[in-house]
Specification:
Family: Belongs to the AB hydrolase superfamily. Lipase family.
Strand content: 5-15%
Keywords: Glycoprotein, Hydrolase, Lipid degradation, Lipid metabolism, Signal
Number of domains: 2
Radius of gyration: 30 Å
Protein name: Lipase 3
Number of helices: 27
Shape: elongated
Structural class: alpha/beta
CATH topology of the largest domain: Rossmann fold
GO molecular function: hydrolase activity
Largest sheet: 9 strands, mixed
CATH architecture of the largest domain: 3-Layer(aba) Sandwich
InterPro entries: AB_hydrolase_fold, AB_hydrolase_lipase
Length: about 775
């Protein structure tokens, strides 16, 4: 075996001793634990995956492979440009040069038959993992791969090729074939140089101020490095979606990185680096794995052996997922998936795996002192990341192992939990398990069901931001847009968007300000649900108003908190519209008054948004002095009994608000949250919660209601009107349409004529001094 290793790897005889030492360290440290005292130790134990029963009948895989071997895939050997153009996609090649001299390639897919090229599309930069390249995103068939799915969904798609891949082998002064120094980089340099260069190029060409990021494995690590080390990168990213991000690797049991763990930091590391020229092609895995002493039997699972997949010997180190493999797609998959990788990145990953950290490259004590002024490298400060982050993980991932079933204070062996814990609550938006017990590290790129399991849910999340990309759409349509973050007195971090002007009504000082507040399970982007010439936000801007969109706690734009994590802390969600009224509403109003320099502002609230106004102005007297007038669209205060069936919905997000509404519907009242007799006595000093004193409201109020509203019925409107003082209630308006219901206030095709124009006329009357009309 050793002789074969020497022949295959073209090793010099003098290297035999080094190879034997490397193999001995790997084997003996596992079989004879006491030897670990004298060998480089791994701090974390490898994760032990749950065994998945192989339910494939015997010889089924051989039949599939036999069929696959006779399949002539005409696209397997074609370039990404050929495949794209032949299938109707518009593709361009772009080159960018990093500040340290590397020349990178990006492929832009700006449109296709389903989504023609147009200006203003939201841009997304897609980054590959180690040993892959940018065309790995088309390894799946055309109707299933992520690149084309994004393009068909209306995105301006950019595939970034990191330094060292077959598409990015250029440099201003170094030759990748002859200069080993070309390969002296890891994902650290990709984060510091490649990522910023790509992001800036995409922003410049696409005209997007902020872009989306989708990254797999090492691409996710590069994102984390860039956004933690370069603060202004966060301002350029709308949201990031990280698939198995290769940050913490303490539980890794994938064979290549596991085999490198006892080697890094020893003389063998540099000898191996020089021997292989700093890199190797993953297409020829055999040379590298043989050099490490890894046998075919070590890396091939029984089911993979049975399927014959290890005969390919290229995908085996990743543990091939038999259950998610489309064997008829195998030729194209192998042709597009595998590329060149740099050894330095593997060494860096192995260092982090051994030390259970995510930190900069360890150059040894002396060089560390020179570079970092410390004996050990500094960790990346992930709490500095501000861009919204979504993390996906797979149950059978041998590289980025899954989290524990229950959260504990020990995160060492559970990379996903450690990463989630290190990100700030403001940044971390979601941690999502791919809904397949067999999902592995490469499945993000090649699983036959990746579209259903991963890509479509990801697109749904992106579309939430894009709909808020009404934020971006605002810019495209000539509307000035600004974003703000405000923190409430109880620690919730809220987003607000301001549209101070447009082509019709340019930005100027002194405009009257109006705050728009959304309903339950909506967010501030709901005001853009209608076309540009019909939605309320743009109509108000064009009418000369300084428009502010408030995003309540718990909505997709306002998931941050100074101490709590919305993904892991149940306490985060312990609020209803009561807390929104006491904390969110005053914070937003004060922000609008301060920035706009208006002493008083207008308020428009739909459903729950209107309820928060009623809470704030009845409970906080000073709030009445800051509001010109309020326009309440189907205000969710009193609920008639027939509407109670609506509260049986359980597929919801903010349960406490829904329960609060349900309590009020049952008691035919508008009062504080009912926490039970004992807790009510402790909090309120009485067995029943107190009602909101709506007679304390002094702001002029206008109420709009719909005939077919099953949630806020006409009797509910009458009850609310009777509770407001005559001086406060200025008008109760039935929408002039017998079919008008609860959500029609934000989505009805004629809402602009039936509701928005009359509302704006009432506001204009206030601005012009006529504040008494009913």
């Amino acid at each position: 075996t050793l002789n074969k290793a020497l022949v295959i790897s073209n090793m010099k005889p003098s290297f035999v001793g080094v190879l034997i030492l490397a193999m001995s360290q790997l084997v003996f440290s596992q079989r004879f634990p006491y030897l670990r005292r004298i060998l480089p130790l791994r701090v974390c134990r490898a994760y032990q995956p749950v065994e998945i029963e192989d339910d494939i009948e015997p010889f089924a895989c051989q039949r599939e492979l036999a069929l696959a071997s006779n399949v002539n895939d005409p696209e397997a050997d074609k370039s990404i440009i050929q495949i794209s153009e032949e299938n109707g996609y518009v593709i361009q090649t772009h080159n960018v040069t990093t500040s340290d001299g590397y020349i990178l390639t990006l492929f832009r897919i700006s449109g296709g038959r389903r989504s023609p090229v147009r200006e203003g599309k939201p841009a997304v930069l897609v980054l590959h993992g180690w040993g892959n390249s940018c065309d790995s995103w088309i390894a799946l068939p055309n109707d299933k791969n992520l690149a084309y799915l994004l393009a068909d969904s209306g995105y301006d798609v950019w595939l970034g090729c990191h330094r060292g891949t077959s598409f990015s082998l250029g440099h201003r002064t170094l030759n990748s074939n002859t200069d080993v120094n070309f390969w002296n980089f890891s994902f650290h340099e990709m984060g510091l140089y490649d990522f910023p260069a790509m992001v800036d190029h995409v922003r410049l060409v696409s005209g997007n101020e902020k872009i989306f990021i989708i990254a797999h494995s090492q691409g996710g690590a590069a994102f984390l490095v860039a956004t933690s080390e370069i603060p202004n990168m966060n301002e350029k990213i709308r949201a990031a979606y990280l698939m198995a991000p290769a940050a913490y690797l303490g539980g890794v049991y994938e064979p290549v990185i596991s085999s490198l763990i006892p080697i890094v930091g020893t003389p063998i590391e540099s000898r191996l680096y020089n021997l292989l020229g700093g890199s190797f092609s993953v297409r020829d895995t055999s040379r590298f794995t043989t050099a490490l002493g890894i046998r075919r039997a070590d890396i091939c699972q029984p089911k993979a052996l049975r399927c014959g997949i290890c005969d390919v010997y290229t995908l085996a180190p990743y543990y091939f997922n038999n259950a998610q493999t489309n064997y008829t797609n195998l030729p194209r998959m192998i042709a597009k998936l595998l590329d060149t990788g740099t050894l330095r990145s593997l060494f860096h990953a192995a260092q982090n795996a051994r030390s259970c950290t995510f930190r900069q490259y360890d150059f040894g004590v002396m060089e560390n002192l020179r570079r970092y002024r410390a004996t050990v490298p500094p960790s990346y400060n992930l709490s500095q990341i501000q861009a919204p982050v979504h993390i996906f993980w797979g149950e059978q991932d041998g590289v980025i192992t899954p989290p524990k079933p229950t959260l504990t204070t020990s995160f060492a062996n559970y990379p996903i939990q450690r990463l989630a814990n290190d990100l700030s609550p403001t940044a971390l938006r979601a941690v999502i398990r791919v809904n397949d017990d067999t999902f592995q590290h490469l499945d993000y790129l090649v699983a036959r069901d990746a579209r259903v399991l991963l890509y479509e849910p990801l697109l749904t999340m992106m579309n939430e931001f894009v709909d808020a990309g009404s934020i971006q759409i605002s810019v495209e349509n000539g509307y000035t847009i600004q974003s703000y973050n405000v923190t409430t007195s109880d620690g919730y971090i809220l987003s607000m968007f301001r549209i101070p002007g447009s082509k019709t009504s340019p930005v100027r000082n002194g405009k009257p300000s109006v705050l728009l507040l959304h309903g339950w399970e909506n967010s501030c982007e709901v005001w853009f649900a209608l076309p540009n010439n019909k939605n309320l936000a743009y109509m108000l801007v064009d009418a000369g108003y300084d428009v502010w969109l408030g995003c309540f706690r718990g909505s997709s734009f306002s998931l941050g908190h100074t101490n709590l994590n919305s993904n892991t802390d149940l306490t985060y969600w312990d609020f209803s519209f009561h807390e929104m009224g006491l904390y969110d509403f005053p914070t937003m109003v004060d922000q609008v008054c301060t920035v706009s320099d208006n002493e008083k502002i207008f308020v428009i609230g739909h459903s729950q948004g209107a309820a928060t106004f009623l809470v704030a102005t009845s409970e906080i007297p000073i709030m009445n002095e800051k509001i010109h007038a309020a326009y309440l669209l189907a205000p969710a205060a009193y609920f008639d009994k027939p509407a109670q069936d609506a509260f049986k919905i359980n597929n919801i997000r903010t349960l406490r608000s829904w329960f609060h509404f349900g309590q009020n519907g049952r008691s035919c009242s508008f009062r504080y949250y009912d926490r039970g007799t004992v807790e009510n006595l402790r909090r309120y000093g009485q067995a029943e919660p107190p009602s909101y004193n709506l007679t304390a409201i002094r702001v002029p109020v206008y109420i709009f209601w719909g005939e077919q509203d099953a949630l806020i019925t006409p009797p509910d409107i009458q009850r609310l009107a009777s509770k407001l003082s005559p001086a406060t209630l200025r008008g109760v308006y039935r929408v002039n349409d017998d079919t008008f219901n609860h959500y029609d206030f934000v989505v009805a095709r004629d809402a602009n004529v039936l509701v928005y124009k009359p509302l704006i006329e009432l506001m204009n009357g206030f601005v012009n001094g006529d504040s008494t009309s009913k």
